[in-house]
Nucleoside diphosphate kinase (Hydrogenovibrio crunogenus), 137 residues
Amino acid sequence: LERTFSIIKPDAVKRNLIGQIVSKLEQNGLKIIASKMVFLTVQEAKGFYAEHDGKPFFDTLIKNMTAGPIIVQVLEGDDAIAKNREIMGPTDPEKAPAGSIRKEYAISMQQNSVHGSDSPESAQREISYFFSEIEVF
Ligand code: ATP
Ligand code: MG
């Protein structure tokens, strides 16, 4: 059993897609073990995406991630990190396979509806960035 961290991004929250995205995660065998809505400040978004600081898309990324509230979640399941990224589909929605979250809901690379951790190390860091010990057990 593995844990991963997931975000439903502002573009999806705005378009009333929380329930449909959560359903896809649950239907594919991921269990939600922590969940809340937060509204990131620019500083908080920059800290979360620090690895992308300096890249050409960084400013737009921060703008989009602070455009409205987001849902942050901890997901648990067999092979949860890889499974979540498979359910999400690739970063570019045009390359995403039918049935994936990004194929069905994403607007563009920048407004691609979801985030998912890409390694056990980032999952651990990202969970700790948003959740305290009493929120995730
Ligand atoms: P995420 O980290 O959000 O789950 P990811 O792992 O698929 O997505 P990353 O390479 O970590 O993609 O990039 C983080 C986010 O930055 C992407 O989800 C996307 O919104 C944006 N992004 C990444 N690469 C590009 C790019 N080449 N052009 C525009 N936006 C990009
Ligand atoms: Mg990433």
